[in-house]
């Protein structure tokens, strides 16, 4: 396989990982709604609402939310195989130093905490709604209706998917950035922008960078990477290659 083919294969693997994660998340939040409906039917007074944090953790556990977090960790690790194949073909795969490994571990832990927090926030939103309804003396039917309005399974599932999808791509970029640090003094290294082809949902910013078809220095790449215009759900990334590889793939190299 050519270097371009390997880059495309890595992108395809990432898209497959995201699609499977989204499907599992949808299934889990559907189960969360079913379990929450059953548990809320047994809530009768303010004391029950006070204990709802424990009930909610049990709901998430039974629905498989915490198992999904572990699978997410494995997902980030699995993605490294095809990424390493890209760097090996480019002759740029170097052993990460202790500092780089430490940073990537910290990034991974923060991302996992972020997804976990979405589940916690959903429970907190629901608990606040229950407090208001119980204090107002509303009926069980009102409580269940409130759950549908407050929890909104599709809203939280969508939020979690957006966060997770962004985090998966960000972790890939973080891995490339840390691996580049090992060889940062190599003047032969440039960065190219790759990922999904331009389509109807491609941001104008990303389309412009893709159409420019340029190779960038590290400073130029860092500036583009930090643009707020490619924040959430960006389907593109920067990878480093040699100047000659960039030329061979048709990129303009200064």
Please give a handful of descriptors for the protein shown.
about 250 residues; elongated; 11 helices; mainly alpha
Notes on the structure:
There is one protein chain. The protein is mainly alpha-helical. It folds into two domains: 3-184, no CATH class; 185-254, no CATH class. The protein contains eleven helices and two strands. The longest helix is centred in the N-terminal third of the chain and has 38 residues, at 3-40.
Helix and strand arrangement:
Layout: H1 3-40, H2 46-50, H3 52-63, H4 65-78, H5 80-89, H6 98-135, H7 140-151, H8 153-182, E1 189-195, H9 204-212, H10 218-225, E2 236-242, H11 243-248
Antiparallel strand pairs: 1-2
Helix pairs in contact: 1-3, 1-4, 1-5, 1-7, 1-8, 3-6, 4-6, 6-7, 6-8
- Cα end-to-end separation: 27 Å
Overall number of strands? 2
Number of helices: 11
- Regarding quaternary structure, what we see is single chain
> Could you tell me the radius of gyration in angstroms?
22 Å
Mean pLDDT across residues: 82
Uncertain residue ranges: none
Order of helices and strands: HHHHHHHHEHHEH
Structural class: mainly alpha
What proportion of the residues is helical, as a percent range? over 70%
Q: Sheet with the most strands?
A: 2 strands, antiparallel
Tally of structural domains: 2
């Amino acid at each position: 396989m050519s270097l371009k083919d390997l880059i495309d294969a890595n992108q395809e693997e990432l898209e497959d990982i995201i699609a499977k994660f989204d499907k599992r998340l949808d299934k889990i939040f559907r189960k969360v709604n079913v379990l929450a409906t059953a548990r809320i039917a047994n809530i009768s007074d303010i004391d029950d609402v006070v204990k709802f944090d424990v009930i909610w953790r049990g709901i998430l556990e039974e629905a498989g939310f915490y198992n999904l977090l572990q699978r997410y960790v494995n997902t980030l690790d699995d993605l490294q195989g095809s990424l390493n194949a890209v760097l090996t073909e480019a002759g740029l795969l170097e052993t990460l130093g202790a500092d780089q490994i430490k940073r990537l571990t910290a990034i991974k832990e923060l991302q996992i905490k972020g997804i976990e927090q979405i589940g916690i926030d959903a429970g907190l939103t629901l608990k606040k709604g229950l407090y208001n309804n119980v204090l107002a003396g509303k009926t069980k039917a009102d409580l269940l209706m409130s759950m549908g309005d407050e929890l909104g399974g599709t809203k939280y599932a969508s939020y979690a998917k957006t966060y997770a999808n962004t985090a998966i791509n960000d972790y890939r970029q973080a891995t490339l950035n840390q691996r580049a640090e090992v060889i940062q003094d190599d003047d032969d290294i440039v960065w190219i922008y790759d990922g999904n082809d331009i389509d109807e949902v491609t941001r104008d910013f990303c389309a412009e960078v893709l159409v420019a078809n340029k190779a960038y220095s590290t400073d130029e790449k860092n500036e583009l990477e930090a643009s707020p215009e490619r924040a959430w759900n960006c389907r593109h990334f920067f990878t480093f290659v040699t100047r000659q590889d960039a030329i061979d793939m048709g990129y303009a190299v200064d």
